[in-house]
Amino acid sequence: MAAKCIEMSGLRRVILASVLPLGVALAPVWLAPAAQAGGVPLSERTISVVGTAEMQVAPTAARISFGARAEHKEAGDAMAEVSRRMAAILAELEAEGVAPADLRTRRIDVSPVWSQVRQNNGQRQITGFVASNMVELTVQDLERLGEMLDLVLRLGANDMGGLQFVHGDAAAQEDTLRVKAVEDAMRKARQLAEASGMGLGPARHINDGGGQGRPPVMRMEMARAAADVPVAPGEMTLSHSVTVSFDMFVPETEH
């Protein structure tokens, strides 16, 4: 029995002798990330910045939003009047050389009109219906923009939206702005890292915020008093933004 105990004790010593060095060797490796720079793991040495870029471009086309609106006691009558009015307007526009591809229906609505006075039971009655049909016209030739504005007004469009200028090559401009926005983010991140005594590593994460356009917009009600509406397209502002996270590192000191 004593011999067996001795054999077991010896076996335990062999096992412990084999395991302990492994545990001792692993401990420094496990603790190494937290031991860097006062307990801050290297994976947390990051900086996030927003890079932006913008440019001014001249618009190449314009979009006019207009339509017809009518109110009647019956919904069918309201829609019939709107349909007749819009059919006449669209036919005249096509006769003026407007391509069908430059005309797009944006919205067709029929909604009830409620009485302002409530009945004895607290309910309001439907007194009629309002129908509307909104269309978007793209004017490719900006020299004809004033003429087109005047035309839709004279043809009887009574539900006026807005005038918006657009750029036909916006996708290519956005590609250029996206690159410039990333370069701006890198410049900012490098400046902040150097100011804090750190070095800038590679990008860890990039979030594309997308592009935005700020074209001049004019409410068409402003144009009603003019016979041949004068329009100055001016310039559009295109912009793009990205959010980039970079790794940072402690620069090696020279001895």
UniProtKB/TrEMBL annotation:
<dbReference type="GO" id="GO:0006974">
    <property type="term" value="P:DNA damage response"/>
</dbReference>
<dbReference type="Pfam" id="PF04402">
    <property type="entry name" value="SIMPL"/>
</dbReference>
<dbReference type="InterPro" id="IPR007497">
    <property type="entry name" value="SIMPL/DUF541"/>
</dbReference>
<protein>
    <submittedName>
        <fullName>26 kDa periplasmic immunogenic protein</fullName>
    </submittedName>
</protein>
<dbReference type="InterPro" id="IPR052022">
    <property type="entry name" value="26kDa_periplasmic_antigen"/>
</dbReference>
